[in-house]
Structure formats: structure tokens, C-alpha cells
Specification:
By secondary structure, this protein is mainly α. The chain contains 9 helices and 6 strands, in the order αααββββαααααβαβ. It folds into 3 domains: about 150 residues, no CATH class; about 100 residues, Hemocyanin, N-terminal domain, CATH 1.20.1370; about 35 residues, no CATH class. A hairpin with a 2-residue loop joins strand 3 and strand 4. The chain is flat, with a radius of gyration of 29 Å.
């Protein structure tokens, strides 16, 4: 993907401009009611990206892998080891639940083993690559599968052979960051180039304000001359004046062996107009409007106003000075 987009798609700090990959509407999510019991359905819900069915694996996104650990750790601390047995989190179909015992255990396990390999439960749970038909159980001449009803077990995604463009090796997963993550400024430059003048003014003021809280002058200068200067020199020069530090840019040196040149890392385009809020279409749809009513209001005028706002898909809230009915 680096050849096409100029960066690693697994790098969560990067973005795909709409001019390169246009947005596609995949569906519609409608929230049409509140929970019946806030504690049981909200406080006890345990979202976790690791809750997947066999056949779905995980990409090499390091942010995802961080969440795969942290979510499980947090939910175990918050709700206990058997959080997936709570009604709001429990699956709606029978599963092979490999956890065992612990507080609030509600499943009555009839299998003896929850580990692999074993000699008792037909060697289940078992990877698909190691599932000989001899290990199947039969009932009425039909095999009884354990776990996923559509396969004989689970399958683990194999390691990639190219380490430099992946977080995996042929020996399995490894900790590390691929060199395709080593470009930090091109997309920041694209973002800056895409802003309207009034948006750039906001960004400059924000940098100046935040740097004003940094007491160490050397730290302020290092941020401006090493970070901002590699994004846009005009930006760095203006902020340096506001922050009260000398402008002495230290631009990034890129030699032939640097990953930026080796993998042709870059921003997909120089400028993305879709980034600027000034280019976004304005619509009142979805906004909330309050109509203040008092005694003497003309009902026909109120009805006409509500009809006009409803046609524009504006959410209307009629309010008054008290709960006493308003006299028309």
C-alpha cells in the first residue's frame, strides 16, 4: 500500500484524503431508544475488539493490538473474569466457552478440558490445521464439531514473510514498528496547506498559546525549529515570534538509506480541500432549535414555524418560562 498511498495504512496517525479515496456510504445506524436499565445495559457492557468469531483475525495495526490487551485488562478489572456471561455481553447462540471457574461463573460446563492438546474432549478446542477426522465424535453417523458450527476448529493467521513491511515474521508476531512508519511531517504539511486563512490563524494562535505555558525557552525553540519547521517554515517563523524564541530551523536530513526515500513515503496529495471546514456544505439538518413561548403567542405562527423547521430536518424543542400551559 505504500506504493499507492505513500504511507503505511496501519499507521493510525495518517489519513486518506477524500480526493484520493472518496467516501462511500456503507449503511445507516439508527439509535431509536434508550436503555431500559442503565446499570445492566450500559455500565455492565464490555466492548472489546477481541470478541470475534472464528475466521476473523486482526490486522497488523499496532493501535488495534494495544487495545486488544488494554480492553481485556480493563474489563476484567471492572467486571470480572466472567464478564462475557452477563446478559448484555453474552452471545445469543451456544458456544464453546474456554474460560473456567472464577467469580460469577454462570455456565455449567460439561466438557472436561479447556486446553489443547487434550485426550478427553476430542482434542477440542483445536486449530483447523491439526484437526484429523479421527478426532471427531459421531452421533447418528454425523460428526459433532466443537466450537464454531461452520468449521472443525479455529484458524490462526500465518505470519508474513516480509518483516520490513510487516509486524510479523515467519516465526510469528514480533514487537516493533516497521520503517514505513518513519515519516512524520508530510501529512501535517498537507493538512496545513489545506486550511483556509482563518483556520491557519486559529492554528497559529493555538500553538502560541500552548507554547506560552512552556517555561523552558529551549524546549519552546526545539519544538518550533525541529517540528514546526519541518511542517511549514512560514508557520514556524510566525509562531517563533509569538513564542519569543529565535528562528533557527533544523530541517530533517534524508539520505539514500532513510526509510522516507527507500519506501517513497509521502502524502498522497499536496493539498486536500475537503479538510477545510470552509469547504464543507452548511445544512441545518440535525441541529437543535429552541422555540420560546409565552402568553399571547399566536398558535398559527407557532405551527408555521415548526412546519418550516421540520421540513429542514431541524430538531425542535418548545420551551416556556414555567410548566404552566401557555395561553394563546
Amino acid at each position: 500500500m505504500c506504493e499507492r498511498f505513500g504511507f503505511d495504512l496501519n499507521d493510525s496517525t495518517k489519513m486518506l484524503p477524500e480526493e484520493v479515496v472518496p467516501p462511500r456510504e456503507l449503511g445507516r445506524l439508527v439509535l431509536n431508544r434508550n436503555t431500559d436499565n442503565f446499570f445492566a445495559e450500559t455500565e455492565q457492557s464490555a466492548f472489546h475488539p477481541g470478541n470475534v468469531v472464528p475466521g476473523i483475525g486482526f490486522s497488523n495495526d499496532p493501535l488495534l493490538h494495544g487495545r486488544l490487551f488494554s480492553y481485556s485488562d480493563a474489563q476484567t478489572y471492572r467486571l470480572g473474569a466472567n464478564r462475557n456471561q452477563l446478559p448484555i455481553n453474552a452471545p445469543k447462540c451456544p458456544i464453546l466457552y474456554n474460560a473456567q471457574e472464577g467469580a460469577s461463573q454462570m455456565y455449567i460446563k460439561r466438557q472436561i478440558s479447556n486446553y489443547f492438546p487434550n485426550l478427553r474432549d476430542s482434542n477440542a478446542p483445536i486449530p483447523t490445521d491439526e484437526t484429523p477426522e479421527a478426532n471427531w465424535e459421531y452421533a447418528e453417523n454425523k460428526p459433532i464439531t466443537h466450537g464454531c458450527p461452520f468449521s472443525r476448529g479455529f484458524h490462526t493467521f500465518p505470519g508474513d514473510k516480509n518483516f520490513e513491511l510487516s509486524l510479523r515474521t515467519v516465526l510469528g508476531k514480533v514487537r516493533g514498528k516497521p520503517p514505513t512508519f518513519y515519516e512524520h511531517f508530510a501529512q501535517a504539511t498537507m493538512f496545513w496547506n489545506s486550511l483556509a486563512d482563518w483556520e491557519k490563524s486559529h492554528v497559529i494562535s493555538a500553538f502560541a498559546f500552548e507554547l506560552g505555558a512552556v517555561k523552558d525557552k529551549e524546549v519552546r525553540g526545539r519544538f518550533i525549529n525541529r517540528i514546526l519547521a519541518n511542517i511549514d517554515q512560514d508557520l514556524a517563523q510566525i509562531v517563533s515570534v509569538r513564542a519569543g524564541v529565535p528562528y533557527n530551523p533544523q530541517l530533517l536530513h534524508i539520505d539514500d538509506d532513510h526509510p522516507i526515500r527507500k519506501y517513497n513515503l509521502r502524502a498522497p496529495i499536496h493539498k486536500s480541500p475537503a479538510i477545510s471546514m470552509g469547504n464543507q456544505p452548511y445544512t441545518p439538518a440535525g441541529r437543535k432549535c429552541a422555540i420560546y413561548c409565552c402568553n399571547g403567542i399566536v398558535k398559527s405562527n407557532l405551527d408555521a414555524l415548526r412546519a418550516a423547521l421540520t421540513k429542514l430536518k431541524v430538531v425542535i424543542e418548545v420551551i416556556a418560562v414555567s410548566a404552566t400551559p401557555v395561553k394563546t
